[in-house]
Specification:
By secondary structure, the chain is mostly helical. Helices cover 65% and strands 4% of the residues.
Amino acid sequence: MSRPPRHIWVQGTLSRDRKAVLRTVEVPAPLTTVVNGHRRLRGPYTVGGAVLRALVPEALERSEALVAEHDIEIRATAPDLRPLVPARRQLVESRLPEDERILVPAPRRTLRIANGLAEFVRDCLRGDSRGDSRGDSRDDSRDRLGGPAALLVDNLHEADPTDLELLRVLARRVDDLTLVLASPQPPPAALGGSFRVIQAPARGLPPESANDYVGSDGTCDDPAAYRAYLDLPPAERARLHAARAALLGPESALGALPYHLEHGDDPDAALRALWAAVDHCVGEGFLDAVVDLGMRGLRLAEPGSDLWWRLTQRTATALGGLGRREEALRLYHQARQISVDPEVHAASAYGTAMLDARHPDPGRRNLPRATGWINEAIAVSTLLSDRRLRAFKLGFDQNGRALIELRQGRVGAALELVQAAIDLAERDLPPQAHPLHRMVLYANRAQLLARSGRAEEALDDFRRAIAIDPFFPDHYLDRGNLLFELGRLDEALADYETAIRVSPPLPEAYYNRAELRLAQGDLPLAKEDLDHVLDLDPDYLDAYVNRAGILEVLGEHEAARRDVEAGLAADPGNAHLLGVLGQLETAEGRYAEAAAAFDAALAARPGLASAWANRAVLRYESGDVEGAVADLTRAIELGEDAALYFNRATALAALGRDGEAEADLRAAQALDPGDPEIRSALERFEKAG
């Protein structure tokens, strides 16, 4: 029998009708009162912030260590809680002036935050004390910590994408939490999980008023209230909004406060509030909110003004990060039409170039066009009269040109450009100025030096980058990967584990550690890491590939097949997964199906040595020994390996080609002198000879 859905969806036209159902539905004790999830209230993490405001104060009484473990996620989600939660892991960027904060977090940062919040909620509901040494004699029967709970949220159709992502993660990862969500619409597939749907009947209550509409911060969905609001004279509407804005504190700056100021009688105050919200959201990586708030700010800003340009640049950058390339291009084009400021033209040209150069689909990158735009940026920046400004802007543009050169395979040219940018910074910038710019340049030079075979110099540059910001996780991952390639596994492991410590849950770090453990032959621990990767990110395709391979080796064929099927559903032509499928079919004696899987894998990726080697096993077992030799020969051409030579020796011996078989065994022994199977096989040949 299938289990009934754990989560509940309340569907009804008006919020007041939905709330009436939310307040009566039978669920575990709610974490807090019904949360209005409308993004207009507090912007990103309107729901997440409400959860934290309910849990963090009591969690601090029980376990300061648990709260400290999630300082990044809590401070990003609920800025009003920052006085309670000191920054234990604080990026250098947070201490820099605006013109030096050049990094925009990738869209996946919000997934890291959501996973960190889910783990915090999970541990709170489990009553996790994180080993606090102090005793606690309080009566815990009245607090929200320990045991199953429910989260009641209305207005899901108006929630910010950060909250929708968080709810999806909570539904998947927190077994003790029941979600009760409400909207006029049916539950979206993107939320995942299964919901029991309850229809909220219309209750025929008296219509709400214009004051109710303003008092709800514009979230009231009663049409009568909205009509009454529109019927007010404009001056009266502005007065109501101004009065409401005066009641709101700074913690409302991301949502309700800008909304009321926009509709009040002080457009300059609205513009300042919108800019403050945009600046915060850029730093935290809340890109959807940046676009929404930035577009609203651009409607108020004077075209050509400094604030207009700052809003334009950040909004276009966010649009590019979200893959909304054409909208970003329109903003850059508009900036070029309106402004004659050389900085605006240089930055617009740079932004346009990066939209072409960084397209996620390599087939859709237009590198020649990107080169033209980045050259224009460099030309304009070269003419800037201020020495320090020129050093920063020109170096920034040269670094962008280096990316384009790299993507055309010209590593040497890219290295020269990054070196020129570093020289500019060291010569013309004050020693403490623009640390993030220097950090990016050192890290990029490290990557290019590594590609050029200059590993020790690359490690020195990674060290310089990490010294600038020890809490920036990406550089530990990159340095760990280089150390892994160099065979310095203990140092690589230390870097991966540091990346895990300094960041909210980071799937890439666990994935890289799994690869290292695979290289060490520790399949159980590698699988454990991959389990966690897929818990954090069920769409992480490479984790399905590697875990399926481990499960196949461990003989867990059904579990391996589930991973293969999950991976192929996302990427039907994935050669690695097709290769694992071939191995599974071979193990089950389904030779025709195995051959089809291997053939498809090799059609997709002819250079995949493992597919040649495993198809050779299939051919040998099905009696095609000549075919097995041919496949093993091709696998050896792609990369010598003792096991490949040993297997080809076995096949050659079966064909009576003993001389060639013995030669292969000696080649295998040279690659792996301590292997007892190789030694034993050679001894048999020597005795026979």
